[in-house]
Amino acid sequence: MMKTLATLHDRDRNRIFRHRKKDGSIFDAEITSFEFVSGGRRARLVIAVDVTERRINEERLRDNEERYRLLFERNLAGVFRSTLDGRILEVNDSLARIFGYEREELLAQTSYSLYFSREDRQRVMTRLREQRTLSNVELRMRKRDGSPVWVLENMTLLETAEGGNIEGTIIDISERKAAQEQVEYQAYHDVLTGLPNRLLFRDRISVALAHARRARRTVAIMFLDLDHFKLVNDTLGHTVGDGLLQAAAERLVSCVRSEDTVARMGGDEFTILVSDIADTRSAATVAQKVLESISRPIEVDGHELFVTTSIGIAIFPDDGTDAETLLKNADRAMYRAKELGRNNFQFATQVIVEGKAARLSLERSLHHAFDRKEFVVHYQPMIEVGTRRVVGAEALIRWLSPEFGLMAPDEFIPVAEETGLILPIGEWVLRTACAQMKTWHRAGHKELHVAVNLSARQFQQRDLAMMIERILEDTKLPASALDIEITESTAMHNAKSSLEILTGLKQMGVRISIDDFGTGYSSLSYLKEFPIDTVKIDQSFVRDLSQGSNDGAIVSAVISMARALKLHVVAEGVETEEQLAILRREHCETIQGFLCSRPLPAEEFEAVLAARPSS
Ligand code: C2E
Ligand code: MG
Ligand code: MG
C-alpha cells in the first residue's frame, strides 16, 4: 500500500489498481489522492473507490464497439450510414458489392447515384422522416452499371446536430424477386406460347373499355379457334400440336399493334383485343390480316401444316359493355363463322340481328312444312374405291320451301333442333329412307345399305331404339342395311348415355358411323370405346388434299388409326380425281362426293344404279 502511495502524484488522479479483499476476491479500486497541509503537517487524502462494476461495463462497451465494427465490416448484409441529404458516411464491403462498387468508390458517391431518379429517393426519405424507422422496404435500385437491383432495406433516422443521419441495412433480393415475378408471370401467362392468359386478357379488356369510354372510341374483341387443330394433335402428336400453337401465336402477334393484346384462352382458342379503333372496318381489316397470316403454311418438325382459323368479333359498345358479354358474343360469332365453312370472320352484331329476323320467319314456315309435305330426301351414292361400285346411299333431307326455295339442311336443321321439330322430321326421314332402300333391295340391289343422319336432339330421345325397331319392322328392311350417322360431338356430348344407346342399336344389328370425323373434340382413341363401324372423314380434310398443299398426313393418319381399330373409312366430299388418287394410295375403301355423284332424288339415284353395277 505504501508503495502504491509513493507512486501517486497529484496529477495521477483516478488510477486503477487491482486489490484483494479479505475474503480473497479481486476487485478494482480507483485511487485518488490529494496532498494538503493540515495543522502545519503535510497530509495526504487517499480515496479508494471500488470500480469493478464500472470496469466491467466499460470493457463490455469496448467489446460491443468492436463487435459492432465487425458486424459492420463483415456483415453479409449491406450496412450504411448516410446523411439525410444523401452524403454517404460509411458503407461496408457487402453494400458496395450489392451495387457493383468497391467500398472506396462508393464512399465518393452520393446516395442519389443508387437510385434511378431523385424522386425515388425523395419518396423514401419523406416516409422515413414521417415514421423514423422503415422496415423491409422493397426498392428497385440502380447498380453502378445502370442495371437494376431489387433490395430489401431497413432504415432508422437518428437525430444529429446537422439534421439527421440514416443508418440501415440492405440485402439483395433480386433472386427472390425474379422468382416471385416468375410466379406472377405464370399466373397471368400461358406457359406454352408466353401469351397473356384469360385472366390477364379480361384485365386488359377492362382497361381498354375504361379508356374507350373516356375517349369515345371503339374496341374490338376477337375470338379465334383454329380449324381442325384437334386432329393435328391426335394424328401427328402433341409435340407437333404444341409447335403449331406456338407458331400460330407468333403469327397472331405479328398481325396487331404492340398496344393490342393477343391471348390464349386454352386449347386452340385465342383472343385478340384491338383497342382504340375508330370503327368496325378497322376490326375487319385486322381479322382479314389474321386469316391470311394463319393460312400460310406453317412448318413444324418437318411437317408442312395448313391451318385456317374462324374468327368471331364483338364490338364495344354495340355488342356489350363488359368483358364477359363481349367475350360471349365474340365466341358465339366464332361459332357462326365455323358454321359458315370456317376460315372466315363474323361480327356478333350481324349474327344477332340476322339471327333474330330470319329465325322468326323460318321457324314459322318450318312448323307448316311438315304438314304440307315440303320435305324430300335425296340420296348420295357411296362408292367403293377398288371397284367403283355403289355400295350404299346417304339419305340427305331437303326442304322445298315455297317461301325460301330449296333449303339445305344446314339452314333449317338447327332451327328444327331447337324447336323440337327435328323429332317428327327425323322420324319421317328414317321411315322414308328405310322404305326407299327396301324398294331398291326388292329391285335386286340387296347389298345396298342406307345411311341416315341423326341429330343430337334425336339421340337424346328416350325411345329412339324402339322407334328405329318399329320402322325396321314396318318397312321390312334388315337392320344390317341401316347405318346411323352421328357426329362425334353428339357421341361425346354425354359419353355414358351415348354408349348405352349405341350398344342398344348395335345389338339390333344396326350399323353406326361417326360423321364429320375430325371436326369435333373427340379423338379416335376415345371413340374406340364406342361400338362403331365406320368413320367418315370430314370433307374439309379431303378438300385440303387437292390444294397440293397437304401431303395427306392427316387423312393418312386417320386411315391407319381407323384400320388399327378395325373401322371402315368413308371419305366425304371427294370432288377431284387427284383427291381420289391420294385416297386410293392411302387405302381408303369408300368415298362419297360430287366426283361420283351429287345427292339425287330417288328416281335419279335409280338411274345411277342402272348405269353402275352395285356390289
Ligand atoms: P353430312 O351428313 O356430312 O352430309 C354430307 C354433306 O356433304 C351433304 O350436305 C352433301 O350434299 C355434301 N356433299 C357431298 N359430297 C360433296 C362434295 O363432293 N362436295 C361438297 N362440297 N359437298 C358434298 P347437305 O346435304 O347439305 O347436308 C348437310 C348436313 O346436314 C349433313 O352433313 C348432315 O349433317 C345434315 N343432314 C342432312 N340430312 C339430315 C337429316 O335427315 N337429319 C339430320 N339430323 N341431319 C341431316
Ligand atoms: Mg352424314
Ligand atoms: Mg359429314
What spatial form do the alpha-carbon principal axes imply? elongated
Secondary-structure-based class equals: alpha/beta
Distance between the termini: 139 Å
| Helix content class | 40-55%
Oligomer: single chain
With helices defined by DSSP (H or I, 4 residues minimum), what is the helix count?
23
Largest sheet: 8 strands, mixed, barrel
Which architecture of the largest domain does the CATH hierarchy give at level 2?
Alpha-Beta Barrel
Ligand kinds: ligand C2E, magnesium ion
Low-confidence stretches: none
Please write the CATH class name of the largest domain.
Alpha Beta
Overall mean pLDDT: 87
Biggest sheet: strands side by side, in what order?
16-17-19-20-21-22-23-24
Instruction: Compute the number of strand runs.
Output: 24
Alpha carbon gyration radius: 44 Å
CATH superfamily of the largest domain: EAL domain
CATH topology of the largest domain: TIM Barrel
Main features:
elongated; 615 residues; alpha/beta; Beta-Lactamase; binds ligand C2E; binds magnesium ion; Alpha-Beta Plaits; 5-stranded antiparallel sheet; 8-stranded mixed β-barrel; single chain
